[in-house]
Every structure is written in C-alpha cells, then in structure tokens.
Amino acid sequence: MAHKDVGRGPLATPYRTVDRIIETSPGVASNISGTTAISAFSSFSAAEAADLDAEMMSMFLPSLYQCSGDLLRLIAPVSSTADELRTITREIKIPASKTGKALAGREKSYSTPRGYFGTSEYIQRDTVLRSLLGIRSAEELGSEPWRLDEILYNANLASFAYSIIGSERDSEKTRQAVDYLDGLFPLHFLDTFHPSGQASTAVTVGSSALEEETFQLGLELRTQKAIMALAKDQNEETFDPDESITPIFFTPSTERDSLISEMEDLLQNGQLKGWDVPRLGGGQSPMAKKYQTAIKTRISEIQRYFLDNEGASDEGWVDLDELGAKFSWSDFVVQVLDWVRKRSQEIDGQIERRGGIDKLMEVLNAEIAFRSNPTSYQRDAVEPNVDLAEPDMPEPEAPHSNQAAAVSLKNEATYARAQVADRR
User: Fold this and answer.
1) Looking at 329, 353, 374, which one is the last position of a domain?
2) Cα first-last separation, the chain
C-alpha cells in the first residue's frame, strides 16, 4: 500500500531504512520493545559490522560530530524557548524560507559522514564498536576515555530531531516510525542515568542526568502511539478502546481478576511497561513509584475521551478530535526538540571535559592502532586529557577536524564475518 511521504523531515536521506525493516519483517516494529527489540536486530548486527568500513568511520567521526552539531544548532538551539522551537518548526515546513534553506544545506552536509555508519535509521552503537575495535560486545568495554559513544548518540539526536520536525501524526510512515522508536527509546541516545545526586563526569560513558525528562518524553511518545492505535482500530467491527491501548502500556498477563474489567485489573494488579534503561524499568531496577503513578494517570486521561453508548456517534467510540487536541502532535514535536537540545548540550559538555573532539580522536585512534597490532604500538604513549570537574556548560563551539590518521582494520572485518559464518 502506498503511503504519503510525510513521515520524515523536508528532505529524504539515504540512510533511512525503517520502512525497509517494517516491510521485510511484518509486525516486528509493533511487537517488540526493550531487550526483545535489541535481540531482534542483533542477528544481523555482526554482519553489518563486517560491512562497515572501519577506516572511513574513524576518519569521518569528527565530521559526524561537527555536522550533527550544526544540524542541531539550527533546529534545536541550546538556548531556545518552547515558543522559539514552535517558530522553527513552522519555518522548517516552508522550503523557501531562510530556515528551510539552511536545513537543506546542513542535512546534506550531515548525510555524507552519516552514510559511513550504516544504513539504519539510527546508528547502532554496538555495531560500530564491534567494527572499529574487533570486540564481540560493548559489554567488554569500560568507561575508557577514548569511548566514542557520545559522538554516535549526538548523531542519533540529529536524526531524531530531523525526522520528527516535519512529520504529521496521520502519516502511516510516522506511525511505523513511532512504533519502532518506542520499542528502543531511549537506547539510541543514552545508556544509563547518573546515580541520584551525582554529577556527570567525563568518564561516565553514555550517562545522562535527564532521568525525569527522559521518562516524560517516553510517556509522551507512548501517548502518541496510543492515539495512533485508537485512530487505526476504531473502524474495526469489534473495536474496544481499552483493548487498543492495553498492550501499549502493560506487559501481557496470564492471570486476571474476573470480577472487574480487564483494564481495571491491569491498573490495580498489572505490570506496566517501562523502558529498557536502569531506573525506568530496565535491567534489575524497578520503575520508581512516581513514574508508575504518572503512567496510570495518563491512561486515565486518555480514557476520559472514550464514549459510552449514549455519547458514541458515527465518528466512533473515541472523541479523537478532542483527544488529539489535548495531546497535540505539534506540542509533542516541541517536547522532542526540547529534550534533544538538553541531551545534546550534555554530550557536548562531556566531550569537552575529555579535552575536546581532537583529543578524543587522538586517544581513540591510539586504541584502534594498539588493538590492530598490539606488539608494535604503545597506546600508553598517548595520554588522555580528562577533567573530572563539573564546570558550567556553555553552548560549545563547533568541533575541529580530526588531526589523527585513521588505521586500517580489515582484519577486524574479517573476524566479524567469520563470527557470522560460525553462527550460520
């Protein structure tokens, strides 16, 4: 079935493959979440790692960081207010506007280095690390000062902001993209959160202080998914609005209290879906009570727009117009951009505290060279420059180009291909 091409920003990019993933694996995006989603894609991540060009990735990492930062400074400026972000979203939709023209140029510049990091909608961190360093899993690594995670996360933020800023909720592509992102949020953009009360340091790789903000955006994303599901299902003959939103907010349950409705039982006894990151329901950490309460409150807010027999009309059993106005898509876009700008500012600060992009690349290339030929290269000759202090985080300047030469890692690609062949 042909879809309207409005599920992305004003320009298409060569690395967009969400539609390909959905079309070749029907239902996968809507049925996976958290670790299940990750395992669903891990089967081909090793093969993709073998296909990546480690030398070109190393060479283009600084450019990826610079160009993603340039794109983000245009559509999600660090100091922008909600009203300013709304203005940007309006201007972006006018290709002939100054902002629209600037976006076209910056996206084009960004797409060149981005193309070296795989064809998925978002860069797969573990796949890149596997290709560059010849490791089996990112879990083998600690928080070494040469870790490039933040560069990749920043690029994913640029892709996220760009894809959402020109989208419309009633697009089928947008619905599919929201399904896909909900299953993996926020792992394309961060790995964990700082312990309560602990400041960020340069050696806390992939860590963020935006726990509450990330939860709130995850809840808004899930709310939009629920609205889309209700709109899609309402024309079904056996449509039940509670049944449409139940799998979005709750994990499946094999037991229930037959004396009350399924939704009431779930609200009282059910297991709420979290997000696959510590303190939001992932790992061994339970979701905080305040977050569970917020999710249940949101479900109740959505249910207020469900109509009974007297209120139902030819339009259906849900007042979608009022529900959509209450949780508008335009407000959601602004919420995304606001969270993106905060997270990007965090990342810029973390990279600066490691000595900047040039120093990070110097120690990274030393590590790559050592792993490629440990008997002839002394990585300890390159000292990391890590400042563990927590300074203010002004808007960073654009990073400079890479000063270090990239090294060839063809033997690592061969190793990755062999691993894939063994599994087959």
Assistant:
1) 329
2) 34
